[in-house]
Amino acid sequence: RGFLRERLDPPDRSWVPTVTDVLGEDAVTEVEREGTQGTERGVETTLPMIMTPTYLAWLMDSCRIAGVAFRWTTVQSLDLLVTGAYNTAPPEAVIICGGIRGGELLGGDDEITPVRGQVIVFANGSDDEDGDGGEDGGPVLTDWYVDDDDPENMTYVFPRVDDIVVGGIAEVGNGNEDPDAETAEAILARAEALVPALKELPILGHGAGLRPSRSSLRIEQVDTDEVSIPVIAAYGHGGAGVTLSWGTAERVAEMVEQL
Question: How confident is the model at residue 196 (pLDDT cuts 50, 70, 90)?
Answer without folding.
Answer: very high
